[in-house]
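Re-run with default settings, no changes from the original entry. Doing this only to confirm the output is reproducible before filing.
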Amino acid sequence: EVESELIAFYREDNAEKLLAPSELAQALKESEEKAERLKRKLSELGIDPDSV
């Protein structure tokens, strides 16, 4: 499938669309930011995030 000059690829087993490299980079950045927020929250609660 073509989406604005990019070819979209889908998994054969479940038809889920695969992310483009820029989308993968954005998803990685967001997940890393979320992990940092959760680590800070655990620290605020007195829990060592590296021990869980």
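Residues 4 and 44 are 45 Å apart (CA to CA). The longest strand covers residues 2-3.
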